[in-house]
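fwd from M.: "can u put these together and see what the complex looks like"

so here's what she sent:
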Amino acid sequence: MQEYIEHGPKKINRDLLAGVLGLPRWWMPIASVALLVILIAMCAYGWELNRGIGVAGINRPVYWGFYLANFVFWIGISHAGIMVSAILRLTQAEWRRPVTRAAEVLTLFSLLAALSNIFFHLGRPWRFLWIPPYDFARGVWPNVRSPFIWDPSAIGTYLIGSSLFVFIALIPDLAVIRDRVSGKTAKRVYGFLSLGWRGTPRQWKLQTVAGILLSALVLPVFVSVHSIVSWDFAVNVSVEGWHSTIFAPYFIIGAIHSGVSAVAMVMALMVWGWKLENYITRDHFDAIGRLLIVVATTWFFFFALEFFYAIYTLEDPEIALRTMQVFEWPYGPMFFVFIVASYFIPVPLWLLKNVRRSPMGMFLTTISVNIGMWLERFLIIIPGLARKTPFTFDWGTYHPSIVEISLVCFTFAFVTLGVLVFSKFFPLVPIFDVKEGEVFRDEIKVGRRTVPASIRE
Amino acid sequence: MTHISQNSASDHGTSNDVTLDLVNRHSHTGNLFRISAVILSILFVLGIAGFVLRITTDGTSNNDKWGYYAAVFAFILTTAQGAPMVAIAPRIVKAHWRRSTSRAAELWALSGFITTLVFVPLIFVLPGLEDGRRSFWFYHEGEVARYIPHYVGALSVVAMALAGLFLLWVSSLPDLAYIRDHQTGWRQKWAKVFARGWQGTSWQWFMVNHRMGILGAFYFMMLVFTHFVIVADFLMPFVPGWIDALFPATHAFNALQGGVATVLVTLFVMRKFGGYSDFIQFDQMWGLGKLLLATSLLWIWFSFSSFMIFWFGKKPNELYTLDLLMTGPYLWLFIAVFILVFIVPFFTLIWNPVRRSTWGPPLIACFVLVGTLFDRIRLYVAAYSVPADADMHGPIPLDLVPAAVYPDVFDILITIGVIAGAVLIYMLGTRLIPVINIWEQRELSIYQVHKRFHRTEVQVLGKPE
């Protein structure tokens, strides 16, 4: 990091706790809008519960529609936290410090948003209880060879792991808040949550070890979650375009692409909304921009492999599906937008330093990526089902209903509100990590020039 | 309050001390080196003899006679030619620990000479597209040349070799200038020619850094593309119905794992027998050990992702492929690969006493290299053993999985000879170009400072970019 402003511990506390101890002026209106969207969507969900899944646009042969595309999208976004936080922590990337918390929180809320789609899709959500094999006496034996059974375990483990990850990193900051809040109840709650943190050397050591261990342990879970989600599709031999070995890595790298893009977007929002430009500097945007170039290009490589190998089979149904995906209405234009928005617009722009270092540039390009990546999930799921078998009497009739559209909007509003509420009670930038960064910061003389340096962790 | 730490002499003295020390070490050739070079030369010549006997005895029309040959080609492509990535990737992320390892890794680009030579006969082994096998080139009679996979394969192998050689040369320019200025005799003459008038001006440094970045990225792209072409045209088409979209990426990814393992073994030899123990220390082994652990984990994930889909799908072509490559005649080889490439690295390198040592990671790297050789034999020998007249589009002959092909004397001679040739050319390269990067060591002596931090001493590393 070349840009550096020394703040000192007091200023760091003041700046980073501003959102907790006070409330930005824009917070209430935005939260109200998000809440309103949630309420409207809940009305739509009530309608679906009352009338049944028939109010959604899914029908033969397209049984999986917006809900599942949205589920995969949010699972993808949830990979942001672990990618940015765990991997960058293990590789000791200095620039991670101010962005880890926001990424982890995004993981938590997007996982919950993803899970909500499963309940929407079930139509009768109480049937979710059929999945866990908790009561053998019922005579209901879930097929343990089905990825649908692995999904809840993987996502549940990931949710628990991510929550622990957020909590462990929050403990020192909770103690800082505990010492600064005035209300009796608030003091008691933060005191309880901070687990008696005093900042002793032993506590610091345990917190650091726990952070590293969790980083290492949560990584396999992170990989397994999206692999299993991809296998929901790929183990199926009857749907053209799904039965591909590349799906697991392709889904993971796609998830990282959209997830890290979402983090860059949140970083820009934090700079504008919470005035954190002294903590999340242009260097941070530059670093995440460089990372995104690598991630996006790797994703594109996997995309190309997936697509070309479908044609390599030289099987007529597979080639017909790809023709439909790329050239036929309505999928053709979507395919064009998907590929342009997720790669050909952002990556050339990220090669320009000015774009990489600009919060607005990164905000717009990463929004473009996520529009593209949402469409990618749609294009993986729907066209394949639309041509499921040559015997199906009804091809390509999926039209999302207003209920589905409302519930997709719900997930976006839910994540927005979740992050906003979190920011009211906890700092979005880890205070202890930023302070540690200042302690490790140094400078050395090279000839007549002073260059930034850091103490090796 | 941030304060400025004063940099003084590094672990190896001032930057001029480092230069003189490394230039002197470079000019010294020990007896062990000479003996090793002679033995390797003999093995290489035996390999050439094996090749000549193979081609005169069997010609190029029998695929099954060339399985081991293709396997050893793929082995060198996967390990030695993957090694320069160990210089490229850490340099891009500006990891300081790489400085003692980058040249040792880049020098493996010289093995491009071997892979290019070894590749030539494979062009004749691969039939044209007229037999109707699957190819990305979508052959239709009269539309495109039926030998287009051969042209593209040859071009990509040559382009990758050239990219590696250029990268090696560009990154060696400053070191060649040091040799030119501090040595006499043939070394000075050689260095003078190849240093291209290097004076170390700001512009020259800018251009070298710029070119290293571009060539590094190009080398990586060529590595991925070459593995893709080799898999798509020189491996998969031999097995009817083997359609695995992930496999080109797995094959290319193996090159990263093989490259790390190759460099680890190289560093161990340099440390133990080359007199570089004060440059190659714990940091380098630890850094690469972590990479080896990560790549081993990724190996199992990639492999399992492919296996999983075939195992669940159970389509005839998938069952045939699984039987041929895993559960059938090469079952024991597959088990050996699984143990050597995943079980051993994973269950040893997660253990701190092994990972955080100077002996652990190189030892595990040896297992990985042996496992990678077995893996290439398993894949290529099995694929090349499928009868050439198998119907590429007809029903998959599930009951016709060919029996295991065991190596004959020619195969053994060729395998040993090719590996010996790659090591020999590397060793000869170290006589021309310093095996420890002098300019990166000089940089380290400028950017690295030791200072007191409370009650301990810490290392402070400058980050000028």
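replying to her w this: DSSP finds 18 helices and two strands in chain A.
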